[in-house]
Amino acid sequence: MLKKADILIEQMEGRGYRATPARRTVLEVISPRRGHFTAEEVCEQAKNVGRATVYRTMKLLVETGIVCRVILEDGSLHYRLSHKDHHHHLVCMACGAVRDFIDGSLEEMVKNLVTKTGFEIEGHWLEVYGRCQECRA
Amino acid sequence: MLKKADILIEQMEGRGYRATPARRTVLEVISPRRGHFTAEEVCEQAKNVGRATVYRTMKLLVETGIVCRVILEDGSLHYRLSHKDHHHHLVCMACGAVRDFIDGSLEEMVKNLVTKTGFEIEGHWLEVYGRCQECRA
DNA sequence: TCAGATATGATACCTAGTATCACTTTCTCA
DNA sequence: TGAGAAAGTGATACTAGGTATCATATCTGA
Fold first, then answer.
1. pTM for this predicted structure
2. Chain B positions with Cβ closer than 8 Å to A
3. Mean pLDDT, 10 residues at a time, chain B of 137 residues
4. Is B64 strand, coil or helix?
5. Is the CB of B75 less than 8 angstroms away from the CB of A71?
């Protein structure tokens, strides 16, 4: 049976990137993660991978869509495994849990902005912050 | 006649902060600005104000609602004068122009998320990136 | 098999922002 | 009015997060 990390490695190879030991290690660190994490956390856990390589790999993984960036309320950059194409994050500020959501009305709104403002819209970024059901209890 | 910077100074005083020369200088640098700018740019222009003080002042201005934070697509933190209570930004990636907008459907969507997910929602952050009418021409 | 392309890790470096601290300014209230 | 407290300042050193460089290692395919 293929491990999750193997599936991700295959995704990378499919995009024309080499499946190197360093990248494998990074993916093995990342793949069991549920919530969001920083590049620095990956550095700590992937001990035999250089810091520069971890940062390079994270950038690569974002490009290939394997992970996505999560910006917390304080502006700090985190990452998490990506499961869908375009989606947004609902981040619990207490436990760090992240839920994805897609919202059609938002895409609609963006379209309206085009006609209202004359802007050509290339992208948008939405993060919602709060406390999840468990943390409220 | 009151300059724009004076009005902003008054706003600060109204919140219980002192109107010091350093803060005046920062506000004079900021007040004629149209688009977004970084704290570092303010440092360069407000030459006789210490860097630490500029950063402290920027933080203060965000707290008092006089400026708001703008996060660019690359994750870097900029600021701009704030004109409304809660709003979002439409940022031109070519010329740096920023347009504010308010969107009721978004607030609606956030409310829907509460019932769908059980999250208690504390805040959200939306930035839209594109090219303005002038830059497209 | 070997030349070129890719990837790596160590290191130095850079940028943005914060902590510290001695000092100055301003406020306030007796 | 003036003394003490509170608030603010700037220089400096420091930290975190990330990038540039470069010699070396590894892979790939003609």
1. 0.82
2. 69, 71, 73, 75, 77, 90, 92-93, 99, 101, 103, 105-106, 108-110, 113, 116-133, 136
3. 76 87 94 90 93 96 90 88 82 86 82 87 86 88
4. coil
5. yes
